[in-house]
Protein: ABC transporter ATP-binding protein
Amino acid sequence: MIKITDLEKYYRTEEVQTVALNKLSFEVKEGEFVAIMGPSGCGKSTLLNIVGLLDDPDGGTFIFNDIDVTNFNERKRANLRKHNIGFVFQSFNLIDELTVFENVELPLIYTGIKPAERKERVEKVLEKMQIMHRRNHFPQQLSGGQQQRVAIARAVVNNPKLILADEPTGNLDSSNGNEVMDLLTELNEQGTTIIMVTHSEHDAKYSHRIIRMLDGQKVTENILTEAL
Ligand SMILES: Nc1ncnc2c1ncn2[C@@H]1O[C@H](COP(=O)(O)OP(=O)(O)OP(=O)(O)O)[C@@H](O)[C@H]1O
Structure:
């Protein structure tokens, strides 16, 4: 599904140039659950932004679903992104002014789904995430664990092939964190490919494979289990 070869990304300010990704290469197959680990500043978020088609690399190639997307412009990237990729962030990134239902409905509006079908799909995913009883609440009225369940509902409502999760349990206690990891595992078992950045060895154990990074490069890879 993903083939990255010699990926490079630089950040330039007037005085200095930071190498965020230094000829990084790896592959992720459809159905895999991959964890990415490494110290602060090693380039994990930069990598996730490129894989999520939110940013473009300065060198190397990126193949997504057999398409070379390395030089896609923003319009083409956005189109591919909204149909194929769901995002889950550490800080949930829900819109405070919208209800639970409206937050989850938003990606369906972007992809042009009609209201009746939107209602059906949002309700189905809220049921699945066991948050239906809070459908008319606003994010601030929910616990952290509930907010992350809403964020996962929003990430999956368009049935993306790929979920990118950036420290999804970073703001949760261990019981809510485990619940989120169980949800991600369940989605993976149903066929969704997952790439998760984490600082937690505990969370990384839910994955099939751990890629460890240092200074913008891959240093090791541990295979834990085979993907289904
Ligand atoms: N917008 C930016 N401008 C300048 N430098 C940046 C920018 N974004 C990231 N960097 C630098 O690029 C390098 C990689 O950053 P990145 O955020 O990808 O690391 P990370 O592994 O995700 O870190 P963390 O675990 O702390 O989130 C760091 O040295 C960082 O300071």
